[in-house]
Every structure is written in structure tokens, then in C-alpha cells.
């Protein structure tokens, strides 16, 4: 369902977080079905990865790109302006949470942890290693 464009991306210029995450056997995301339809979904924080925190942004209901299905649900190109929470986002202190009737406190949780992009120098260095490896084989 989400293919190569799946994942969560943050644009540090516009302060927009774009979410492409799914759950359930029908989503093709590798996650199991939930116990039922999602009744609420949010970004919570700030909190450590093992603690709970209050709701910062609602991502359920009529949120564009949100699908509450327990077997084929998730967010597709859902965007949130997180400018007021940028430091907490980059500090790994926010998390996604989807709630169901059976698990009203949250059935699934995904901590939002930044993963640095490789630098241009590292990419050029890797390309150089591939070039050297090919040259030696000749």
C-alpha cells in the first residue's frame, strides 16, 4: 500500500511532517490486524520512549489521508505542521498512537525518532569504493 514512498518525513524548512504508515494485513505493511476500528489517533508528547504523554495533534477522524480500518488502515500523505514541537520531534520525544475500543489507551504506538540522512561526502566515498572494487576486478 505504501511502497517506496512509505515512511515519515520531516521538512525542516516548512516544518511539515508527512506520514505514510499503515497497519493490518490488507495494508501490506507487515503488521497484524488491530482488534477493531481505530477510534482515535494522535501525536503525543513530549515523553521518553517508555513514558506516556498528552495529545499534541489529532490525526484521526476526518484528517486527510487517515483510514480507521483495523485491517487496512493508516495514514497516506497525512501532513502536520509541527513548528511548535520541532525541538521535541528532533529530540525523539513524540510518538504516534492509534486507539481502538478494546485498547482505549492506545493499541499501537510508534516513537518518532530522527534518522540522519547520509552526508554527500559519505555517499561520494561509497561511490568511490564501488569504483575501486570494479577497477580491481578488471
Main attributes of the structure:
four-stranded antiparallel sheet, 2 helices, globular, 17% helix, 138 residues
Task: Outline the structure in words.
This protein has 2 helices and 8 strands, in the order ββββββαββα. It is of the alpha+beta class and 138 residues long. The protein has one domain. It has a 4-stranded antiparallel sheet with strand order 1-2-6-5, with no helix packed on it. Strands 4-3-7-8 form a 4-stranded antiparallel sheet. Strand 5 and strand 6 form a beta hairpin. The longest helix is centred in the last third of the chain and has 18 residues, at 120-137. The protein starts with 6 loop residues before the first strand and ends with a helix.
- Report low-confidence residues grouped into runs of 5 or more: 129-138
| Cα Rg | 18 Å
Report the strand count.
8
Number of domains: 1
Summarize this entry quickly.
By secondary structure, this protein is an alpha+beta fold. The chain is built from 2 helices and 8 strands, in the order E-E-E-E-E-E-H-E-E-H.
Record the SSE blueprint.
Blueprint (H helix, E strand, L loop, with lengths): L6 E5 L4 E8 L14 E7 L10 E4 L7 E2 L5 E9 L4 H5 L3 E7 L7 E5 L7 H18 L1
Antiparallel strand pairs: 1-2, 2-6, 3-4, 3-7, 5-6, 7-8
Amino acid at each position: 500500500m505504501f511502497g517506496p514512498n512509505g515512511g515519515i518525513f520531516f521538512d525542516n524548512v516548512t516544518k511539515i511532517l508527512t506520514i505514510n504508515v499503515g497497519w493490518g494485513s490488507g495494508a501490506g505493511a507487515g503488521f497484524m490486524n488491530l482488534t477493531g476500528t481505530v477510534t482515535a489517533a494522535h501525536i503525543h508528547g513530549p515523553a521518553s520512549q517508555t513514558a506516556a504523554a498528552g495529545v499534541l495533534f489529532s490525526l484521526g477522524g476526518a484528517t486527510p489521508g487517515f483510514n480507521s480500518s483495523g485491517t487496512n488502515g493508516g495514514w497516506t500523505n497525512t501532513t502536520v505542521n509541527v513548528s511548535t514541537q520541532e525541538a521535541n520531534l528532533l529530540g525523539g520525544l513524540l510518538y504516534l498512537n492509534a486507539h481502538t475500543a478494546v485498547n482505549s489507551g492506545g493499541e499501537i504506538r510508534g516513537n518518532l525518532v530522527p534518522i540522519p540522512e547520509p552526508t554527500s561526502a559519505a555517499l561520494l566515498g561509497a561511490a568511490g569504493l564501488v569504483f575501486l572494487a570494479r577497477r580491481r576486478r578488471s
